[in-house]
Design goal:
By secondary structure, this protein is an alpha/beta fold. About 40% of the residues lie in helices and about 20% in strands. The strands form seven sheets. The chain has a five-stranded parallel β-sheet with strand order 4-3-5-6-7, sandwiched between helices. Helix 3 packs across helix 4, helix 5 packs across helix 6 and helix 9 crosses helix 10. The longest helix is centred in the middle third of the chain and has 22 residues.
Length: about 625
């Protein structure tokens, strides 16, 4: 049996076959139940599944009235909002293909995606500029001028349209109601005609160099993700999920598909800086997130405990020292218990555990971490405080989820076992290969790039190096392309060192490990400003600026101790010989982080090459 025949057989076994049929079934099953919540100007609004269905149908009819045909591409440009999900569902219900655009994208980046995808229309949120950037409505209108095929722009917020050529979403819905009344049955006929193998979405990878590639994901890939997650019991219909992940990122899109498939309550968060504020109000039971979020929560809780005055702060420092012994033993594959740890748990960690859960809303039951490796020490910290983080793994090309830890069997340090129906194997060079019903159709209009990673036998080359244990759980060592090779010929996995350093101190915000073709390993650090200034304040010191903080001997001394402690555990060729501290943090807006908060190695390396060179006697050829 060929791979295509196998795929057809696997897809035939799905309970529903397309996003449209899955949404229809959800409305039938959960009609009066609350489906979603969104917050605008501090006020929450909500929709039941029936109400969501009504709006989706009105908006889909409105798109049809605007001339959107089956197979047409429609872009969505904005942060994670209820309206984003509404637009997405309306696009596919009308037979179209959603083309997400990251909220941080520039005009030129929007132009490329609109042009490359052939988008004929675009949604966006409003025209509120962020961190010096022009508003998204201004950006998408400027981009559409350069891409004449994109003839319509629809704004989520009608009041922002003003004198522009954009249309308001509610106006499109109103027109859609009239269109639907005059063309009864046409929308349902479009939905019935969709094949599971038809594209539902083009997701453009946020590559660090060159133009992004459009990953074509069919309807069945999202349905498979939703059904597999239900089978694994990671989420359930009674849950409330807080979703802040960009819906332009496959992790966020897969979470949204799972929402439709399982019918839990979804609270949308449109600002990553306000996750804790939204969590306090929405009180989620499930939080899908990237490691950066857990790092920040961890650092915040540690900082709060250590900053307590007098005996409380000293007791917290002692208790955290006991935890460090526990975590070190666990990472070495050993069990650890002591009277000190038992006392620390009773006297300090019960309060830390309560603080941790309260910061995430008070009702949190499970967190799912993906997109990048999670430091094991942080995972052990959450587990020790009775909060479960299930680390998972996948790529855009396989619709996010490929492996995941299970609630009943969580192996920290791994990304779990394969989803039901997914096959894994390790190539001779250690690369992880994947085959399953969630694989992309290919890269849009880029057959050469498709053939490089996806063979006719259905095996996808992930570009990640890893291994399988006896239970089929996957341990990833690093990205194949990110491995550092020193001038001495030794290979080093930078993410392992970066995660260990960030887990070692709340002082660090970001870390870049460097050493490719160099004599030894060096690092660039950025600081957690609050923790760094607190360090100085506690010693009766101060600094007038972050530049001064970054250069301060006390700060550098504290960081050197963290480096020294890590170096004790490393082979000599992997030890960090020098580091420099930057006065400013990496950010999405500066182009140094991806929208999923991963560092862009090539961008940072090129931008700070002078800093990196200063740590070596020689320059690169």
């Amino acid at each position: 049996m060929t791979w295509q025949q196998q795929l057809t057989e696997r897809v035939s076994k799905l309970k529903t076959k397309t996003l449209v049929s899955m949404f229809r079934e959800r409305v039938k099953a959960s009609g009066s139940k609350r489906a979603a919540r969104g917050r605008k100007k501090g006020v929450w609004s909500e929709l039941t599944w029936n109400q969501l269905d009504t709006r989706v149908r009105d908006l889909a009819h409105g798109l049809m009235e605007l001339g959107i045909k089956p197979g047409d591409r429609v872009a969505v440009f904005g942060p994670t909002r209820l309206e984003w999900a509404l637009a997405d569902l309306a696009i596919v219900t009308a037979g179209g293909i959603t083309v997400p655009i990251y909220a941080s994208n520039t005009v030129d980046e929007c132009v490329f995606i609109l042009e490359n995808s052939g988008a004929v229309a675009a949604f966006c949120d409003n025209d509120e500029g962020e961190k010096g950037a022009k508003g998204r409505l201004t950006r998408i209108l400027a981009a559409s001028v350069q891409v004449p095929a994109c003839r319509t722009v629809i704004a989520f917020d009608d009041e922002t349209v003003g004198a522009t050529l954009a249309k308001g979403m509610s106006a499109v819905e109103t027109a859609g109601r009239a269109y639907g009344a005059a063309h009864q049955g046409e929308l349902d006929a479009r939905g019935d005609a969709i094949s599971p193998f038809d594209p539902a979405c083009f997701i453009y990878t946020s590559g660090t160099t060159g133009n992004p590639k459009g990953v074509v994901l069919a309807h069945h890939t999202f349905v498979y993700e939703a059904e597999a997650l239900a089978e694994m019991g990671i989420m359930k219909a009674s849950d409330t999920m807080l979703l802040f992940l960009p819906l332009a990122h496959v992790f966020g899109k897969a979470a949204a598909a799972t929402w439709v498939g399982q019918g839990f309550d979804m609270a949308f968060c449109d600002n990553v800086d306000k996750i804790l504020e939204y969590a306090a109000e929405a009180k989620p039971t499930v939080l899908p997130a990237v490691p950066r979020i857990f790092e920040k929560v961890y650092a915040g809780v540690i900082q709060k405990a250590l900053s307590a005055p007098g005996i409380k702060g000293k007791l917290a420092a002692w208790a955290l020292g006991e935890f460090d012994k526990y975590a070190a033993a666990r990472m070495a594959g050993k069990d650890y218990s002591s009277l000190g740890l038992t006392l620390a748990k009773k006297l300090v960690f019960t309060k830390i555990s309560a603080t941790l859960k309260e910061r995430l809303g008070g009702n949190i039951q499970v967190c799912v971490s993906g997109s990048a490796p999670l430091a094991r020490k942080i995972a052990y910290f959450f587990e020790f405080n009775d909060l479960l983080i299930l680390e998972a793994y996948g790529l855009t090309e396989n619709c996010a989820g490929t492996t995941a830890n299970r609630p009943h069997k969580n192996k920290i340090g791994t990304v779990g076992a394969a989803f039901p129906g997914t096959e894994l194997k390790i190539a001779e060079d250690g690369e992880i290969l994947i085959r399953g019903p969630h694989l992309m159709k290919g890269y849009w209009q880029n057959e050469a790039a498709t053939q490089e990673v996806l063979g006719e036998d259905g095996w996808f080359k992930t570009g990640d190096i890893g291994e399988l244990d006896s239970d089929g759980y996957v341990r990833i060592t690093d990205r194949k392309k990110d491995l550092i090779k020193t001038s001495g010929g030794k290979y080093i996995a930078p993410q392992n060192l970066e995660n260990a350093l960030k887990a070692g101190t709340p002082l660090l915000s970001q870390v870049l490990i460097h050493g490719d073709r160099r004599k030894y390993v060096s690092a660039i650090f950025t600081l957690n400003e609050e923790a760094a200034r607190k360090l100085l304040t506690d010693k009766g010191l101060s600094a007038p600026s972050m530049d001064a903080v970054a250069r301060h001997a006390e700060v550098r001394g504290a960081l050197q101790k963290v480096v020294d402690e890590l170096n004790k555990t490393l082979p000599s060729y992997e030890t960090i010989k020098k580091f420099e501290v930057l006065a400013t943090d990496f950010s999405i807006e500066s182009g140094e982080l991806t929208p999923s908060l991963k560092i862009k190695r090539k961008v940072i390396t090129q931008r700070y090459m002078t800093v990196l060179d200063s740590m070596y006697d020689e320059k690169l050829d």
